[in-house]
Structure formats: structure tokens, C-alpha cells
Amino acid sequence: MAKTTILIVEDDRELREALSTTLEIAGYNCVTADSAESAIPILEKRVVELVVSDVNMPGMNGHELLEYIHRQFPGIPAMLITAYGQISDAVSAMQSGAVDYIVKPFEPNVLIESVKRVLGAVNPSTEGQPIAEDPFSRQLFQLARKVAVSDSTVMIAGESGTGKEVLARYIHASSPRKNQPFIALNCAAIPENMLEAILFGHEKGAYTGAYNSAPGKFEQANGGTILLDEISEMELGLQAKLLRVIQEREVERVGGRKTISLDVRVLATTNRDLKEYVAEGKFREDLYYRLSVFPMQWKPLRERPLDIVPLAERLLGDHIAKMKLPPISLDQSAKLAMQQYSWPGNVRELDNAVQRALILQQGNVISASDLCLESNVGQNFGRDTVGLNPPTAMFEQAFDSVDGASNVDGASQLLEAEGASVLGEDLKQREFQIIIDMLRKENGRKKQTAEKLGISPRTLRYKMARMRECGIDLDAEMSAA
Ligand SMILES: Nc1ncnc2c1ncn2[C@@H]1O[C@H](COP(=O)(O)OP(=O)(O)OP(=O)(O)O)[C@@H](O)[C@H]1O
Q1: What number does the ligand 1 atom closest to the CA of 469 have?
Q2: How close is the Cα of 163 to the center of ligand 1, in Å?
Q3: What is the pLDDT of the chain when averaged over all its residues?
Q4: Sorted alphabetically, which keywords does the UniProt record give (predicted)?
């Protein structure tokens, strides 16, 4: 699992090494700089959760570095090391915004305790923190921290399952609003006729079935942040209303007359090219510019390869903890297979693969075959035995090879727990197959496909996005027809 990274800035080599060793033994990841000047490029390139800096250094001193950090990286806390007897140093350290200071000489424990206090964690692991090992992701999270302190709207774009919501939550958690609500709403998952009332609230009797008044998501997010997930799926009429709410910073519930003032930061995500949507007249240009004050773009997982294994390890650790399983690790073959796979469904697909592998693994080690990536799950989809899709076939194959007692370690408990979801998985695969068949029949025309299936085009788009997350390459499926 990724560890919290601390940047140590100290010109005295021995003290620098002692600080770094002490914190590394305590479970932190340390990077060091021998001057404030050389700390700056490190801050620009890496994700750093805390800076521990000496005050007295030749050139730029600790206070000046602190000021620089406050200006350029306001989300990063800094601790200063002051000299014994220079109490004025300690006072000015606090005045210039240091979150804490320690006085030389100090015991290793004093350092560790202060660091723990500052990081607000008893445990130095970064549980719950997003994984960012690839240089691209590190820079993105660095940028997120910078934008977090402002109140500007942020539009996060990226393929489905890349981590857009994770990034949005991170922005909120790094912002001054972090102790206020974070409300996320998936615009694609809510029926069109309900979305307005859910966003803006409604008064009793506003529509059939509105037996009580209820606040909307904007009201619930007041003081905090609202995340409008898959914003491209909002219909044009509602887009106009949303624009008004954002501009006027007030909302009126459906069927209500009272205006309610809002102090809400708006974040939005999209997995479509919104500019294209604007050009096609499907998305309002004024709303697009309102929401894209600060645009951020996730790369697909395959284009940030250094994230793959650490992410898989994090997801694996989370599932193991949830299911109270003994430690289970990834072997080299699994890591290699993961790095070579293209992950069309991005991190969500990786999560699915890890969960599958947990069921199939033997001896508490996950190897490449347990991941079921060999045939690139989606690629032959629909061309196998009727009604028997590749994931199911793989499950059956793997279950056949389970030789009773030898694989009892975890697998049987898991199977029991996962039995229902395997059944659900099978139904889902059948639904996917029906959609693919109809898309082929209609030569990929989504409107006609949706009509024939008796679902709305929006529901079809939503289901197609879920299919991509499951690793189904819809373009390949269509061209193979
Ligand atoms: N950097 C990360 N660190 C830890 N977990 C991550 C990271 N990125 C993604 N995940 C995990 O991957 C899954 C998908 O992430 P998320 O929901 O943020 O993607 P998304 O791009 O918003 O997807 P969609 O477009 O479908 O809404 C989640 O379970 C999330 O916890």
C-alpha cells in the first residue's frame, strides 16, 4: 500500500539522515532536500503530504520556504525545526503558519508524535487516500490540491472508471469545506423526470406522489460541495435551470416560491467529449464554460502503468479487510499480466478482476490465471457458446479445478458469500448480450436500439458505459458482427 510521503528539508547531512531514518522506521516514505531551494522542484514534481523543514539554512530559510509553500501549495502542511533557546523562532514559526514545530535536540519519539498529530492519523498508512504512483497521477493530485483551496468549479473528464469521483472527493477533502457535506449525484442514473426534484428539492404536492416536502441535493450540500457525475446526461431544459442556480447562488424547490441561498462548490464529471456535445447542440455552451473554470483530465489506466499494481494491491487489501480473509498476495505473473492488459474499463475493471481473482486463487497467492485476463474478457464476447459467456465459462473452469480440501483457505467461504453475485453476474452478462445483439441488428444506431429494447436512449448509454467498465470493447463487438 502507498505510504504517506514526507519531505525533509535540512542542510545538516547527519540530522537529515537521522530524520529520514526515524520516519521511515515509523512507516513513512521520506524524500530529502539539503536546502529550501532544492525542495521546491521536489514539491512541484511529487505528491508530498507533509514538509518537515529546518529553520536555519543558508540561502532561503525555513520561514521563507513556509511562505512559499503557503502561496504555491496551500494544501501541504509544514512543520519547522527550531534551534534550542530561540523561542522567538518558535513563535514566528507558528505566526508564519507552521502547523507545528519541534525544538532541537529532540528524541525520535517527539518527532514521530508530532508528525502523527499533524497528519491527524494514529496509523501512518494512507488508508483511504487515493493511489498515485505514476508521475501523471502524482501531478494530477498535486494540481487537485492547488485547486482545492479556491472555490472554482472543476470539470473532471476521463473514461469511465478512471477515478473521476475519487479525484472529486480528494478535492473536497483538501478544501476548506472538508468538514462540510460532500454530496454526489449521478445524473445518468436518475430518471429524467425525477432529476429536477432531486437536485433542487420539492414542496409537498408539487407533483403526484410528493406527499412531503424534501430538500434537494443542492440544499443538502449547502456549505460544502456537490458533485454532478456524468453531467453530459442532463437534458437541455434542466441544464438551463442548473445554470441559473449556479449563477444566482440560490435555489427554489419544485412547487415552491421561497428562494434558498446557497453556498455550494460545484464539481462535475464527464466521460464524454463535452465540447463535442456543445458543438452538436446537446450541451449548453454557457453552462459548459461555467462548469469548466478549471478543467482536469484523467488518463486511461493503461496510459499510467505505474499505478496498476499499487492500485491492485490497494483494492486487494480493501477486499481482504472487508471479508476478514488472511493475507493474500499477487505473484509476479499476476503483476505482469496486469501491466500488459489494456483495461478498457479502467480501475473499476481492475477492481472486478481482483474480486474474481480472490475467489479463484489457491494458497493465498493470486497468479495471472486467477485474473481471467488471458482472453481479454470482452473480446470474444457473444461469439461463444450461446448463453455461456466467457467470464462464466472461466468461473466454471476454475471451480472444476478446485480439489476440495486443498483450496478451502478462503475460497469456499468466498464462494458462499459471492454465490449471489455470481448469479447476478450471469444475469448481467445475458443483458449485455441482448444489448450487443440489438446494437448489431440496428447497425450501432443507439436511438433505434433503445426503442427496440423498450428503454430510453439515456438508459442505453448508461448500460453501455457499464459494459465498457466490465471490459467489453463495444467497438470490437460491433466490427466483429
Ligand atoms: N487513485 C485511486 N486510488 C484508489 N482507488 C481508486 C483510484 N482511482 C479509482 N479508484 C477506485 O476505482 C473505482 C472507480 O473509480 P471512480 O468511481 O472514481 O471512477 P469514475 O471515473 O468516477 O467512474 P464513472 O465514470 O463510472 O463514474 C472506485 O472503486 C474507486 O474507489
Answers
A1: 26
A2: 3
A3: 82
A4: ATP-binding, DNA-binding, Nucleotide-binding, Phosphoprotein, Transcription, Transcription regulation
Q: Which pLDDT value is given to residue 280?
A: 94
127 alpha carbon – ligand 1 mean position (Å): 15
Last residue of a domain, one of 69, 87, 119: 119
CATH code, domain with 207: 3.40.50.300
Q: Is residue 129 part of a domain?
A: no
**For 383-437, how does the pLDDT look when each residue is reduced to its tens digit (9 = 90+)?**
332 222 333 333 333 333 333 333 333 344 444 444 444 445 666 777 888 888 8
Euclidean distance between CA atoms 339 and 458, whole angstroms: 34
Is 127 within the bounds of a domain? no
Q: How far apart are CA 481 and CA 478, in angstroms?
A: 5
Distance of CA 470 to the CA centre of its chain: 17
Ligand 1 atom nearest to CA at 168:
18
Residue 472 is predicted with a pLDDT of 82
User: According to the model, what pLDDT value does residue 379 have?
Assistant: 40
Task: For strands 329-330 and 365-366, give the pairing.
Answer: parallel
User: Which whole-number Å values give the CA distances from 189 to 52, 252, 390, 455, in the listed order?
Assistant: 45, 23, 27, 13
In this predicted model, what pLDDT tens digit does every residue of 194-239 receive, in sequence order?
888 889 988 888 777 777 788 889 999 999 999 999 999 898 999 9
Q: In this predicted complex, what is the ipTM? A: 0.98
- Output the CA 294–ligand 1 centroid distance in Å: 20
Its pTM stands at 0.63
137-to-241, 297, 308, 412 alpha-carbon distances in Å: 34, 10, 11, 37
pLDDT tens-digit map of 347-391:
999 999 999 999 889 889 999 999 988 554 444 333 332 222 333
Q: Whose CA is nearest to atom 4 of ligand 1?
A: 130
CA of 161 to the centre of ligand 1 (A): 5
Q: Which of 70, 90, 88, 89 is nearest to 78 (CA)?
A: 70
Residues spanned by the domain of 285:
135-299
Domain with 104 in it: what CATH number?
3.40.50.2300
- Å from CA of 304 to ligand 1 middle: 14
- pLDDT per position as a tens digit, 237-286: 999 999 999 999 999 998 888 999 999 999 999 999 999 999 999 999 99
**Boundary residue ending a domain (63, 93, 119):** 119
Q: Which atom of ligand 1 is nearest to the CA of 137?
A: 1
Read off the C-alpha cell for 95. Answer: 505566526
Domain count, the chain: 3
109 in a domain, yes or no? yes
Looking at the structure, tell me whether residues 463 and 354 fall in a common domain: yes
For ligand 1, say whether the CB of 345 is within 6 Å of any of its atoms.
Answer: no
CA distances for 25 relative to 4, 132, 376, 455, angstroms? 13, 22, 41, 57
Residue 124 lies in a domain: no
In a shared domain, residues 60 and 9:
yes
Task: State yes or no: pLDDT of 329 exceeds 80.
Answer: yes
